[in-house]
Design brief:
The complex is a heterotetramer of chains A (169), B (507), C (710) and D (102). Chain A has 169 residues and is mainly α. Chain A has six helices and no strands. In chain A, helix 1 runs antiparallel to helix 2 and helix 2 runs antiparallel to helix 3. Chain B is mostly helical and 507 residues long. In chain B, helix 9 runs antiparallel to helix 11. In chain B, strands 1-2 form a two-stranded antiparallel ribbon. A two-stranded antiparallel sheet of chain B has the order 3-4. In chain D, helix 1 runs antiparallel to helix 2. Chain D starts with a helix and ends in a 13-residue tail after the last helix. The chains are: A mainly alpha (169), B mainly alpha (507), C mainly alpha (710), D mainly alpha (102). Chains in contact: A-C, A-D, B-C, C-D. At the C-D interface, helix 29 of C face helix 1 of D.
């Protein structure tokens, strides 16, 4: 066990735990806060993967924007929080079964796969992954088209969201 | 100017379509606007054609003003257009007649928007056939020409229009089937539809080759007849001609003008552009049969015309008669290919196409003029109209004489050339065709007699039935036709020399 | 201006006049006839200049006036058109120009220019007279301008034909005249008889024309040219004569000649296509003169004379020509004897005289045929115009009495007009004597004598005898006509009040009478007793004969033909006068033989044999039976058959199999499934989600099982 | 060094947790929370594959970024829908919405 591994196990454990809390908390505000914790955990995992930029984006976008958005949504629908009573529906057992089956299936598949124990190569010295990412995102030979499509998607989502949530009184 | 020069044919071809689309956006009630717009729009292609005619170099062999764009690459079909001496004269005829036909349609007041749109689409369809240098394009335009005409007859025709339009459509489609199959066969065999390439490949086929499991000779014979029947229906040749009197009789006046003036020429043009170059051997072998059908059309057409009591039907049958001479010339050219006889016969045939376009359009228009006023075409109800409408009478006699082939007017020159070309090689057929020429005189005189001559017709002389003289607009329709008829009769060389150069190079 | 250029211009003035009248001056009668007569005069002037210049050229036959231009491209060569005036052309041009000018002038008076407009006249009918101060007087023709337009076009056609150097332009002029004859014969188109006559004329001549067109095509394809000068060369003629045509054992030359000759048969109204000409009398009289004398029928003869070198290449064709000519001569002459209409007599006389010319040509008498053509043109134009003048005078009488039942053309209504219309009488007498061949002083004698002499001299005794008998008949009916019309005393009130016609009509008569006498003197044979040595040479024979490469030999002088022509002419005239001097009415006429009167029933025969069957075939066989019955019938079978096949497919396949089994069946299956699967459609998103996952697992598991384990 | 399998297992577990949340929670906002977890799990996978594959190929990160964008869009639209539904039907419980029922 190296230090890195230990750190990973701890982070992973904490993350999964807060994830479980996200789906089980009775109070939605709590659930949203636990989501923030989970997302933060994932950000740390990114760091472990040497993807610092991703970690920053994770924090800024997910925690800074998405999680906050959730909290707003929760508060806007506050009158009907239904904090009391069952938080899980009547088919929760089927859901749980599916989740377990999914995990089991994925795990089984991972085990039979050959590249499981592969280890990461060293990142070459002087390799600027942020610059490379930016170059590839805007290069016509690479990913400018998906990038642009994504921006169009965002625009569409924005217009759609405004339209849906607009109070037509 | 450079753009104009390099895209001249496309411009001529698609301007009418463009204009038709513009009409679509004009307000529906403005009939007057539709008329004038359509008329003006159809003058532009005519002007461009004059420019084309001027820029065309008759001494060069092969096609000129060619344009080629990828169209259907997977099967080797290109949008390839161009003109030579034969097709340019047909293009000229088409763009010349269309404005006149539109001017002749100014009296149409029902659904003018659709009417003029269809007319302009029709022009594109016809021009496309004459310009196409790709079999598939040829076929596409061939069919495009059919649809507007169907609707013109079906929507603006007279009493029996449903029957006539359906008959027209089914007849032509029936012929097109074989044509399409034969075209596809050529395309599949050679991987291209380009006429110029096909001319060479197809004729250089070794006669021992086996195609589609049959000897090449059999395949060619079958394809030859598939082509011939399709074109024979359109020309129309006896015995495929019975759609024509019906369609003509029921079509609106301008529809008849274009039908007789240009659409019939598509069939004859098909013979010249496709049948003879593709099947020189078969054309030689079956020229007797072709000549037989042509002579049958000439003789029976004249006889049938003589038997009519319906003025328009009389004129319609005269088309059968006149187009027979075109095919007779073509048959002679097929038989005598490479000789002077063939050149004269073929030039005569092309000229006859042009001439018939002028005189038949004129005749149909004149029938329309009187029909519009009297609402009848029954010859028995006419007679003795000359004192009432002297100007109309004079014009009718003039045009009839052109149709009759009076020397000094255009019809004579072409008939003379066809007879001259056909006589040495198809002597008996030509001699029998003279019987048709004789009866041409008979039915023309019958027409004049039954309409104009005779004791003054009291029925149309007074009161509500009073027949009015041909008006200025109608004279303006006839005037260009008459002038051209006269010019071609006196000095045909300007047109014939262009045709002749191409004919000498091709046949 | 060079002579060649001048020749190009000769036909143009009438054409321009036609256009001017039609387009601009048709409302103004005076302007119209001024334009037309000026045009005729210009052409006349041109023709005279050309004629005089032609006289001045040495060896004119070898150096005619000719020029040509490229007209129509044919393959790598050109078809040329051009003008040619050779001796024959010059001679013909001379009489054509004169007669046309005279006829134009005559028309002014004939159509009553200057008279008031008729009370009830309208276009399409002859004028019916106008009332002035209670008297009925002649009224002006309502279509006066149109008449001048048509005859101008006609004149254009004739001049074109004469000056043309090739068969093609000759044919152009030929057909334009055909059109004009149609228009002019049917000038009073509102009269059904005139309308029918016009069509008859056009159609009958067109029968000839289509054969002629074939002949032209044949000639053109064999020789590659249509120019007279190029065809009539030794080499080409021999080629043509040696090539067999495969028809009736004729050589190419023979067949071409025969085809062209059929054209002439139609145009010059030879048997059996003669039927149109008498009916053509329906037209105004100047038209009759135009058609019968100066132009159209002459054109037919002119064309065969032109083509003589070709025709003479084949004996058989020549025999046919001679036979047709001789037969027509006697055949028409016999009919003329029994006619009562003053113009119809002349019409049959014309047919007969044209037969003389054709027969002359058929026996090789080239010059004689041309000579008779010209003299006949003069005196026959004179006779027609004279008869028109008579009719005009009679109409005057008719209007005076007001009895419109009297036919002003029937000779039995006339008599004694000698004193009423002296100028007409004397000129008509000259014309009639010329037609009869009155010895020595008339042109007709010299030309007819030359034909008989040629026939005798070349040993064509049958032709000689036939023509001699025909000449006898000619003299007889001519005298009959003169006697009935002018001599004796008036037989009707109208004839008493007949009146001499105006100067515009009599001047042409005098001019033509002059030529009817004098023109004969240019062709007096060299060896004719007394007169021959006096004139020293036969100018006409010399001049026209040089048109041919080998100048034809004049026949040896013989007393037999001379005496024969003296006997038949004088005998016929004498007998005619003797028989008719006391005839008072139709009943006393012994020659009213119905067989002759009805023209041997040829009209009726043609009606039954050709015209009715043609119409019947056209209408019933070709149109109704073939087109509408068979072809459309077959087409109309397609409809029901397709319909039957369609309904069979529908009833036995589409409805039970496709619709009920496949169509309805699949719908029912789907409905059953839908009904039973409906409960799982809970509308709850999470349940759908679970269900889809279940499916994924099941399918994935199965796939995994199949792919990896099995 | 951490083997790749650890990351993948972690991601699988996170994914399953999210799946459970999406399938079983009654509150619509909570369902969306579950979906967020699933998306994050996928992102972890993507970045891990990038790290353990050819680093010079940025496909994994690019993909992850695009997933961010999709997630943002999804949340924006999803929450807007929730608010809209809440306004109209006055409920945020998924089970109570069965308008699409047969």
């Amino acid at each position: 066990m190296t230090t890195e591994q230990i750190i990973f196990l701890i982070v992973a454990g904490a993350t999964l735990a807060s994830g479980l809390l996200v789906v089980t908390s009775r109070n939605l505000i709590h659930a949203a806060l636990w989501l923030v914790a989970t997302l933060f955990g994932v950000a740390i995992v990114y760091t472990l993967l040497n993807a610092g930029f991703m970690a920053v984006v994770q924090v800024v976008v997910y925690i800074g924007a998405i999680a906050i958005l959730f909290i707003f949504a929760v508060m806007l629908t506050r009158k009907d929080m239904r904090d009391s009573g069952a938080q899980l529906n009547s088919n929760w057992w089927a859901g749980a079964l599916m989740a377990v089956l999914t995990f089991g299936g994925l795990f089984a598949m991972l085990r039979t796969w050959g590249g499981m124990s592969k280890t990461a190569a060293e990142i070459p010295a002087g390799f600027d992954q942020i610059a490379e990412l930016g170059a590839q995102l805007t290069s016509p030979e690479a990913y400018v088209l998906p990038f642009e499509v994504a921006s169009v998607l965002l625009l569409a989502a924005m217009v759609g969201a405004v339209y849906l949530a607009f109070n037509k009184k | 100017m450079d753009f104009l020069n390099t895209h001249l044919l496309s411009l001529i071809l698609f301007l009418p379509t463009f204009a038709a689309v513009v009409i679509l956006f004009l307000p529906s009630e403005e009939s007057k606007l539709h008329r004038w717009f359509a008329f003006g729009a159809s003058l532009i292609p005519f002007g461009l054609t004059l420019y084309l005619w001027n820029a065309f170099d008759p001494n060069r062999t092969g096609f000129q003003f060619q344009e080629q764009y990828a169209w259907y690459e997977a099967i080797g079909s290109n949008f390839h257009i161009g003109v030579d001496g034969i097709s340019i004269s047909m293009v000229l005829l088409t763009t010349f007649l269309t404005p006149l036909a539109i001017l002749a349609s100014f009296s149409v007041s029902d659904k003018t928007k659709a009417y003029f749109m269809l007319f302009l689409f029709l022009e594109t369809g016809m021009l496309g056939v004459f310009m196409a240098l790709d079999l598939l394009i040829f076929f596409v335009f061939w069919e495009i020409g059919l649809v507007p005409m169907y609707f013109l007859i079906n929507q603006w025709g007279s009493a029996n229009r449903n029957y006539a339009s359906l008959k027209f459509m089914i007849y032509t489609m029936g012929g097109s089937l074989g044509l399409l199959l034969a075209i596809q066969m050529l395309g599949v065999l050679f991987g291209t539809y380009d006429l110029v390439t096909l001319y060479q490949n197809w004729n250089s086929l070794d006669s021992g080759t086996v195609l589609l499991g049959m000897p090449v000779h059999t395949v060619k014979t079958i394809a030859f007849w598939a082509f011939v029947i399709a074109f024979a229906i359109k020309v129309p040749l006896w015995p495929f001609h019975t759609w024509l009197p019906d369609a003509h009789t029921e079509a609106p006046t301008a529809g008849s003008m274009i039908l007789a003036g240009v659409l019939l020429k598509l069939g004859a043009y098909g013979f010249i552009r496709l049948v003879l170059p593709f099947y020189p051997n078969e054309a030689r072998m079956f020229s007797g049969a072709l000549a037989f059908l042509a002579v049958a059309a000439i003789v029976f057409g004249a006889f049938a015309s003589y038997a009519q009591t319906d003025f328009k039907r009389l004129v319609a049958y005269s088309s059968v008669n006149h187009m027979g001479f075109v095919v007779l010339g073509i048959a002679a050219a097929g038989l005598a290919a490479g000789t002077k006889d063939a050149h004269i016969a073929m030039s005569g045939a092309v000229l006859q196409m042009f001439n018939h376009g002028l005189s038949a359009a004129g005749m149909f228009f004149l029938v329309g003029v009187i029909y519009e006023r009297t609402h009848t075409r029954d010859l028995n109800q006419f007679g003795g109209l000359f004192p009432l409408v002297p100007v109309y009478g004079g014009i009718l006699i003039f045009t009839s004489m052109a149709s009759l082939g009076l020397p000094g007017l255009n019809g004579f020159v072409s008939e003379f050339m066809v007879v001259r070309g056909a006589y040495p090689v198809l002597t008996v057929y030509t001699a029998v065709a003279m019987l048709g020429l004789l009866f041409t005189g008979a039915y023309i005189l019958k027409g004049i007699k039954s309409v104009l001559h005779g004791p003054m017709n009291e029925h149309w002389a007074h009161g509500e039935h009073k027949l009015t003289e041909i008006n200025t607009r109608e004279i303006l329709v006839m005037l260009p036709l008459m002038v051209l008829i006269l010019i071609l009769g006196i000095w045909p060389a300007w047109l014939v020399s262009v045709i002749n150069q191409t004919v000498v190079a091709l046949f | 201006m060079t002579t060649e250029n001048l020749i190009w211009l000769i036909p143009l003035p009438p054409l321009i006049s036609f256009a001017l009248i039609v387009l601009f001056t048709n409302k103004n009668k005076a302007l119209s006839h001024t334009v037309a007569i000026s045009a005729a005069f210009l052409s006349w002037l041109g023709a005279m200049i050309v004629f005089v210049r032609a006289l001045g050229v040495e060896h004119f036959g070898e150096h005619p006036f000719a020029s040509s231009i490229n007209w129509l491209p044919t393959g790598d060569t050109w078809l040329k058109v051009g003008v040619l005036i050779d001796p024959l052309g010059a001679a013909v041009l001379f009489f054509v120009a004169w007669t046309i000018l005279m006829i134009f002038l005559y028309s002014v008076g004939y159509h009553n220019f200057g008279q008031p407009a008729g009370d009830h006249d309208h276009a399409g009918l002859p004028p019916h007279g106008a009332t002035v101060h209670g008297h009925t007087v002649l009224s002006v023709e309502p279509m006066y301008s149109r008449f001048f337009a048509f005859i101008s076009l006609f004149a254009f056609g004739m001049f074109t034909l004469v000056v043309s150097d090739s068969l093609l332009t000759l044919f152009v002029g030929w057909e334009i005249m055909g059109l004009c004859s149609y228009l002019l014969i049917g000038f009073w188109y509102a009269k059904p008889s005139a309308r029918a006559a016009g069509i008859k004329a056009f159609m009958t001549t067109r029968i000839g024309d289509v054969f002629m067109l074939l002949g032209i095509a044949f000639l053109y394809s064999v020789t590659g040219t249509l120019s007279f000068r190029e065809i009539f060369t030794e080499e080409i003629l021999h080629t043509l004569a040696s090539v067999p045509s495969g028809v009736f054992g004729l050589s190419a030359a023979g067949l071409i000649g025969l085809l062209l000759f059929i054209g002439t048969v139609g145009k010059s109204a030879q048997f059996p296509l003669h039927v149109w000409l008498p009916d053509a009398m329906e037209g105004p009289t100047p038209v009759s003169a135009m058609i019968h004398a100066a132009t159209m029928v002459s054109a037919g003869v002119y064309a065969v004379i032109r083509m003589f070198p070709l025709l003479s290449m084949d004996e058989k064709t020549m025999t046919v020509v001679a036979f047709i000519g001789a037969f027509t001569a006697i055949f028409a002459a016999t009919i003329a004897v029994a006619q009562n209409d003053i113009k119809r007599v002349l019409a049959y006389s014309t047919i007969s005289q044209l037969g003389f010319m054709i027969a002359a040509l058929g026996i090789g008498a080239y010059v004689a045929a041309a000579f008779h053509l010209i003299t006949h043109a003069f005196f026959k134009a004179l006779l027609f115009l004279g008869s028109g003048s008579v009719i005009h005078g009679m109409e005057h009488g008719v209007f005076h009495t007001g009895n419109h039942k009297v036919d002003p053309q029937d000779m039995f209504n006339m008599g004694g007009l000698k004193d009423k219309m002296p100028i007409t009488f004397w000129t008509f007498l000259i014309g009639g004597f010329a037609l009869s061949g009155f010895p020595l002083v008339t042109a007709g004698f010299w030309s007819k004598d030359e034909i008989l002499a040629d026939a005798w001299g070349h040993h064509h005794y049958i032709v000689f005898a036939t023509l001699a008998i025909a000449a006898f008949f000619t003299a007889f009916y001519t005298m009959r006509q003169i006697t009935l019309t002018f001599l004796g005393s008036p037989r009707t009130e109208e004839a008493k009040h007949a009146h001499e016609t105006p100067w515009t009509m009599t001047t042409p008569l005098v001019v033509l009478a002059f030529f009817a006498v004098t023109y004969g003197w240019v062709g007096i044979p060299e060896h004719f007793p007394v007169l021959g040595p006096l004139v020293n040479n036969n100018w006409f024979h010399d001049f026209v004969g040089h048109t041919l490469e080998h100048v034809p030999e004049a026949p040896e002088f013989s007393w037999i033909p001379l005496l024969t022509s003296l006997v038949v002419a004088l005998g016929g005239l004498g007998l005619g006068w003797f028989v008719y001097k006391d005839v008072k009415s139709v009943e006393q006429d012994k020659f009213q033989i119905s067989f002759l009167k009805n023209k041997y029933y040829f009209d009726e025969l043609y009606e039954v044999v050709f015209i009715n069957p043609a119409y019947w075939v056209a209408e019933n066989v070709i149109y109704k039976f073939m087109d509408q019955g068979v072809i459309d019938g077959v087409l109309h079978i397609f409809g029901p058959v397709t319909d039957k096949i369609g309904s069979a497919i529908r009833n036995y396949f589409d409805v039970p199999v496709v619709n009920q089994f496949i169509g309805d069946g699949s719908a029912e299956v789907a409905w059953w499934f839908g009904k039973n699967l409906r409960p799982i459609q809970t509308g709850r998103i999470q349940q759908y989600f679970i269900l889809s996952l279940v499916v994924i697992f099941v399918v994935g598991g199965l796939l995994y099982y199949i792919l990896t384990l099995a | 060094m951490i083997p790749l399998s650890w990351y993948l297992t972690f991601a699988a577990a996170l994914f399953s947790i999210g799946l459970f949340g999406a399938l079983s929670r009654r509150n619509m906002v909570a369902i969306l929370l579950g979906v967020e977890l699933m998306l994050n799990a996928v992102n972890v996978n993507l970045v891990a594959f990038w790290r353990y594959g050819d680093v010079a190929q940025m496909a994994g990160q690019v993909f992850a970024i695009i997933v961010f964008a999709v997630a943002a869009a999804e949340v924006a639209v999803g929450l807007a829908l929730v608010i809209s539904v809440y306004r109209r039907h006055n409920t945020v419980i998924a089970e109570e919405l069965d308008l699409m029922k047969w």
